[in-house]
Write a structure and sequence with these properties.
Elements (H helix, E strand, L loop, with lengths): L1 E2 L2 H6 L1 H15 L9 H13 L3 H4 L3 E3 L9 H7 L6 H11 L1 E3 L5 E3 L1 H8 L5 E5 L11 H17 L5 E5 L6 E4 H13 L2 H8 L3 H21 L4 H12 L2 H10 L1 H16 L7 H18 L7
Helix pairs in contact: 6-8, 8-11, 10-11, 11-14, 12-14, 13-14, 13-15, 14-15
Length: 298
C-alpha cells in the first residue's frame, strides 16, 4: 500500500499512474494466487467488497484532489483527541482516496481499511539530513497516522522503520531507534539547542515543536522510550536557570513545552516517578505565572 502526500501527488502524477498500472497488471496476470501475492490479495478484496478487479487492485492512496495532509498532526497539536483510534479515523478519512490508472481519485475508505489490515510493517524514507522525524510534523501526520490506522485495522501494532538515506550508505532503523538518535544529537545536544536559542523567540518555538512531535509519535506508534521525556524535562523545564531563560525568550512556547510533557503523563504515554511529576507540575505553574506576568523578569 502506498500513501502519498498531497505535494507528491501533485508533483508525480505520471509515477502515481505507473504504480497503479503495475498493481493492476500484477492483479490481472494469469498466474496462480499462491505465486502472485498482489493478485491473491486483490482477489480477496474483490470478494470482500463485491467490487471489480479494477477497484480491488488499487494500492495508491492520498487526499482528494486539491486537499493536503491527514490532519492527524493538527489533532495532536491541539490535543483534540480522546481515543487513539480517532487519530486512525482521521487518517482514513483524509487519505482514503484511491488513485488508479487514469489518475482520478475515488473515495475508497473501506478498501483502504481492508488493505491496511494486511500490512506487516510501515516505513518512511529520510532524504535530508536537515529534517528528521522529530523536526517537522509531516512525518507524524503521514507515517504516524498510517501506522495508527494499520494498528486499528490489524488489531495490533505493526513495526515502524525509518530508512535513513541522508548520507553515505542507507541505514534502516526502527522508529524508536531513530527518535533516540535524534533526541541525543539534536534536542539534548547543547551545540544544537544553544544554536536554536540564539534565534530567540523562534528557537524556543522550534524546541516546542520537537516536544509536540515526540508526543505525536507516542500517540500514534508508542515508539518513544521513557528516558526521552525524562531527559527533555530535566534539561528544559526542571532546570530553573534554563526554564527562566526559555520563558524570557518565548513565554508561550516555554509554557507549552511543560504542558505537553504533562499531557503525555495524563494520556499515559509516559509515567514519571512521583517526584518528577510533582516538580514538573510546579515548573508548569511557574511558567504559567511568567506567561501571565506574575513573575518579574530575571
Amino acid at each position: 500500500v502506498v500513501t502519498l502526500s498531497g505535494i507528491f501527488r501533485d508533483l508525480l502524477p505520471l509515477q502515481t499512474r505507473m504504480l497503479a498500472e503495475a498493481s493492476w497488471l500484477a492483479s490481472t496476470a494469469d498466474e496462480a494466487p499462491e505465486m502472485n501475492f498482489v493478485r491473491k490479495h486483490s482477489l480477496a478484496h474483490a470478494a470482500q467488497h463485491g467490487c471489480s478487479m479494477d477497484v480491488a487492485a488499487l494500492r495508491v492512496f492520498s487526499n482528494a484532489q486539491g486537499a493536503y495532509g491527514a490532519n492527524v498532526n493538527m489533532m495532536i497539536d491541539g490535543g483534540a483527541w480522546a481515543d487513539p483510534d480517532e487519530l486512525a479515523e482521521m487518517f482514513e478519512t483524509h487519505k482514503g482516496y484511491a488513485y488508479g490508472r487514469n489518475g482520478a481519485p475515488v473515495q475508497h475508505r473501506a478498501l483502504l481499511e481492508s488493505e491496511l489490515a494486511g500490512v506487516e510493517l510501515t516505513y518512511q524514507n529520510l532524504e535530508s539530513v536537515e529534517l528528521g522525524v522529530t523536526d517537522i510534523d509531516h512525518y507524524v501526520d503521514g507515517l504516524g497516522g498510517m501506522s495508527k490506522a494499520v494498528a486499528k485495522a490489524r488489531g495490533s501494532a505493526a513495526p515502524v522503520y525509518i530508512v535513513d538515506a541522508t548520507q553515505g550508505d542507507s541505514k534502516v532503523r526502527t522508529l524508536g531507534e531513530q527518535i533516540d538518535l535524534e533526541t541525543r544529537t539534536r534536542m539534548l545536544n547543547p551545540k544544537w539547542y544553544e544554536a536554536m536559542l540564539e534565534h530567540g523567540f523562534e528557537g524556543v518555538r522550534h524546541l516546542e515543536c520537537h516536544v509536540t512531535n515526540t508526543v505525536g509519535w507516542s500517540a500514534t506508534t508508542g515508539s518513544v522510550n521513557p528516558w526521552v521525556y525524562q531527559q527533555i524535562s530535566e534539561t528544559f523545564v526542571l532546570d530553573p536557570a534554563m526554564r527562566a531563560r526559555l520563558a524570557a525568550l518565548n513565554p508561550k512556547s516555554s509554557a507549552r513545552v511543560a504542558d505537553r510533557l504533562l499531557e503525555a503523563c495524563d494520556r499515559q504515554l509516559w509515567t514519571p516517578d512521583a517526584a518528577t511529576l510533582a516538580a514538573l507540575k510546579a515548573a508548569a505553574e511557574d511558567l504559567e505565572d511568567r506567561l501571565e506576568g506574575l513573575v518579574a523578569a530575571e
